[in-house]
Amino acid sequence: MSAAAWRAPLLGNRFLVAVATMLATVMQVIDQTIANVALPHMQGGLAATQDQITWVLTSYIIAAAIAMPLTGWLSGRYGRKRIFMLSVVGFTIASGFCGAAQSLTQMVLFRLAQGVCGAALVPLSQAILLDVFPREQRGPAMAFWGVGIMVGPILGPTLGGYLTDNFDWRWVFYINLPVGVLAWLGIALSIEETALDRKRPFDFFGFAMLSLGMGGLQMMLDRGELKDWFTSLEIQIEAALAALGFYTFAVHSATSEHPFLHPAIFRDRNLVSGLVVGFVVGIVLLASAALLPPLLQELMDYPVMTTGIVMAPRGIGTMITMVIAGRLIQRTDARWLIFVGFLITAYSLWDMAQRFSLQMDSWSVIWTGFVQGLGLGLIFPPLSTIAFATLPQQLRTEGAGIFNLARNAGSSVGVSIVMAAFAANTQVAHASIAEHLTPFLRTPVLPHLWNLRSAAGLAALDGEVTRQAAMVAYVDDFILMMVVTLAAVPLIALMRNPRRTAAAARGPEPVLD
Fold first, then answer.
1. CATH second-level architecture of 265-513?
2. Measured between alpha carbons, how far is 39 from 235 in angstroms, rounded to an integer?
3. N or C: which end of the chain has fewer CB within 10 A?
4. How many CB atoms within 10 Å of residue 81?
């Protein structure tokens, strides 16, 4: 049997398409967080300072943010399958070079390459699944794809901690090699190439201005806490460049004959509403995941693996409700699922603010994380389905790139906000608690250690006050995220029910029923 005859039955195989795209999605999403716990080990291995080693994370985030909007144009010009396969190959090779890096310069360069190549994986995966699966099966398909998007940031630190503790920090990158090979084979065998569009010119100026805006914003968010935000000239410059880039891009897009992003994307109410809601989901998803590891490890003295275990139920809850949401999307108004998901997520954050203390047991973390996972799992599949329900097929790849860019931007903004609020609230709480300490303080448990008349006693007491203040700041962050979640609920009303969308608005494709 010839290779073509053997391969032909596999083309368009929806199960194989879903598995291949899921592998590519998980590989890229996990890599956003898997290196975090390995940074201290990398710092020693690469002889880097604390400030320098953060570029391992920053370089990847900035490169991915700049390259992701290119996905739509590149896919139209060179073919979606070809770009997908090249992205997987580039990401896999760059991962191998990251694992073999011998200096910080090499590591940053390879992480830049990894970010550029990986930027297209998630939007291409989503666009391919939307095209391959018929309307009645898109809900389950988006649920399956969403598992990788939502669970990846949760499993990344756990997997990174396990590989670092039991093998070497280099394995947080080497683990991508077999996954990349399997993803490439699946894509090559199952996905068909799309028609090419060589007529649309490349808007270099628009891309440059959008890149300037995204790059400046990501730099500001990533280094703001380190540089004390706007007291630093660097942060002021980055903020000014971001504002200039976004403003110039908006003006240029409104006046250009062939703008970098197709104007029809921003005339689709469902997609625009989905961008805003996805931005909020990104804030809650990654910000809460970023808060828990330092809380558990630094305040509660949990080991890395134990931290991963008690956080795992969050991912389990997400997977459970994603499966349920995937089945319910076709039977009910998907907006109600998003509404219920936001309420459950807000309740979990309120419950965390009530339960969490320095005396809590692991069950509080497990239960609240599981409930939060249930809420997030109800949001993402229907949100993805509604956002693209009224978008023309030829714009899906470009729309998927912007949709995932908004979610990633929300994650960056969310992490920066909660970390900045945590630092400020810790100082406020520390000062408030310290006001009540006097030389007459007595404790029946450790009177000799908390003696205000000795240097050791003052140091010990200050350490305990700092711990208590940090917990107060964490609780304040949970309340802040709860408010943000509830504030996003009215945005659901801006979306149109795709089941009632007229056939004329969808073109030749049948409406969702």
1. Up-down Bundle (1.20)
2. 23
3. N
4. 18
